[in-house]
Amino acid sequence: MESYPRWTYVVIFTLLVVVAVLSVRALRKKTDTVAIAPVENGATRQESASQPDNQSLQRDADNERRIQELTADVERLRKENDANANHVKDLEGNLADTRNELAAVQQKLKAAPKQTARASAPAAPQPRDRAVASAPPAPPPQAPPRRASEAGQYEVVRDTALLEKPSSSAREVALVQRGIIVNVVSSVGDWYEVRSKYGKPPGYIRREDVTPKPTQSENRDRF
């Protein structure tokens, strides 16, 4: 059940009291007029009783009009009160929404310094990271040991390049043609180190491009 403000009930009660007082006064005046009217004879008394008093009718009409006006005022006040109640409900809803938004903003403001501190704090090293950090750096990979047993004279089986280092990307020192006898002093992986006995630049040649010197190659050209 919808409740109205206290002043609304006071206004309605006051209007009803006014209407009741006016009605009682109108009835009293009508009774007094009928009681003090001169009675000359039986015919006159009958005519007075049978004919309505114009003034009483006018008063009744005025009272009725006033009652209607008061009723209209009460209805208007009730409608205004309903409109005000709805407006108050809307304002209360807006106020609740504003309070919720303000509470959310306050929570974000409180959490912002904590997030900033977490972002700025250095990350703690994990146990594995500490072990890696404390371990000494691994030594660089060493080249496979040279096999001195492979030293000797070899015959070039195809035209190949003599490189400055044992790498395919190294600078080319010279071009060694097929059939040339080279002097190998050591080996590094898939490469042979070649040292010339005739003043030519040293370098490295691929293992697959040479073969051990055959016994019948004494008259071959030498590098």
Provide a short characterization of the protein structure.
The chain is α+β, with helices and mostly antiparallel strands and 223 residues long. It contains 4 helices and 7 strands, in the order H-H-H-H-E-E-E-E-E-E-E. The protein is rod-shaped and about 170 Å long.
Walk me through this protein's architecture.
The protein starts with 5 loop residues before the first helix and ends in an 11-residue tail after the last strand. It is an alpha+beta fold and 223 residues long. 52% of the residues lie in helices and 15% in strands. A hairpin with a 2-residue loop joins β4 and β5. The chain has helices at 6-36, 42-50, 54-120, 127-134, and strands spanning 152-156, 160-163, 172-176, 181-188, 191-194, 203-206, 210-212.
Structural class: alpha+beta
Biggest sheet overview: 5 strands, antiparallel
In helices, the fraction of residues equals 40-55%
The average pLDDT is: 76
Summarize the SSE layout with pairings.
Layout: H1 6-36, H2 42-50, H3 54-120, H4 127-134, E1 152-156, E2 160-163, E3 172-176, E4 181-188, E5 191-194, E6 203-206, E7 210-212
Antiparallel strand pairs: 1-4, 1-7, 2-3, 4-5, 5-6
Keywords:
223 residues; alpha+beta; five-stranded antiparallel sheet; two-stranded antiparallel ribbon; 15% strand; rod-shaped
